[in-house]
UniProtKB/TrEMBL annotation:
<dbReference type="Pfam" id="PF00990">
    <property type="entry name" value="GGDEF"/>
</dbReference>
<dbReference type="InterPro" id="IPR050469">
    <property type="entry name" value="Diguanylate_Cyclase"/>
</dbReference>
<protein>
    <submittedName>
        <fullName>Two-component system, cell cycle response regulator</fullName>
    </submittedName>
</protein>
<dbReference type="InterPro" id="IPR043128">
    <property type="entry name" value="Rev_trsase/Diguanyl_cyclase"/>
</dbReference>
<dbReference type="InterPro" id="IPR029787">
    <property type="entry name" value="Nucleotide_cyclase"/>
</dbReference>
<dbReference type="GO" id="GO:0052621">
    <property type="term" value="F:diguanylate cyclase activity"/>
</dbReference>
<feature type="domain" description="GGDEF">
    <location>
        <begin position="55"/>
        <end position="187"/>
    </location>
</feature>
<dbReference type="InterPro" id="IPR000160">
    <property type="entry name" value="GGDEF_dom"/>
</dbReference>
Length: 190
């Protein structure tokens, strides 16, 4: 009888671990281990429900410049390694309460609660410089990359997707005007 109880406890524990892994994989990017889009929306909605009224929230969209060339020249293994290195670099430069996700491909999204627009521009510039100065080493290959950043403010009058779109517009303005820069949405619509 005790053998059966031990087996049941073992199975219950294994099921709990599997369930935890499934929950993690549903909300996190498998490659970089940061949030995916689903995880982003879950965290952002939780942020909004706990955020002080009128507290500023800023959004940074970031994209690796010429990432396709990295994959084409060095292969997807190095491309994947670059993505994980960039994610780890950004994690070390943002706050513990910030929301960081892989938005798609080589694009990342950062939400900075309690951060005014001007401060978000400075944070994006710090990240940009750190990435620009970083040498990524993989099996004897050294790679230098740059990133372009778009910054916007969250406005509770709009859906989050509109505010992300604004950051994306600023990012693509930067892409079309030389790359390796930080562009604020409020600066291109002024």
């Amino acid at each position: 009888m005790s053998f059966l109880i031990i087996m049941m406890k073992t199975l219950v524990n294994e099921l709990a671990v599997t369930q935890s892994l499934l929950k993690q994989s549903a909300s996190h990017d498998f490659l970089t281990s940061i949030l995916n889009r689903r995880g982003f929306y879950e965290k952002f909605n939780a942020l909004l429900s706990n955020q002080r009224e009128n507290a500023p929230i800023s959004i940074i969209a970031a994209d690796i410049d010429f990432f396709k060339k990295i994959n084409d020249k060095y292969g997807h293994d190095i491309g994947d390694y670059v993505l994980t290195e960039i994610a780890n670099t950004i994690i070390n430069l943002i706050g513990i309460n910030d929301i960081f996700s892989r938005w798609g491909g080589e694009e990342f999204l950062i939400v900075l609660p309690n951060t005014p627009y001007e401060d978000a521009l400075k944070i994006a510039e710090i990240i940009r410089k750190e990435i620009e100065n970083k040498v990524i080493k993989y099996k004897g290959t050294k790679i230098k990359i740059t990133m372009t950043f778009g910054v916007s403010s969250f406005n509770p009058m709009y859906e989050i997707d509109q505010c992300i779109s604004n950051a994306d517009k600023a990012l693509y303005y930067g892409k079309n005007n030389g790359r390796n820069c930080v562009v604020g949405f409020e600066d291109i619509i002024a």
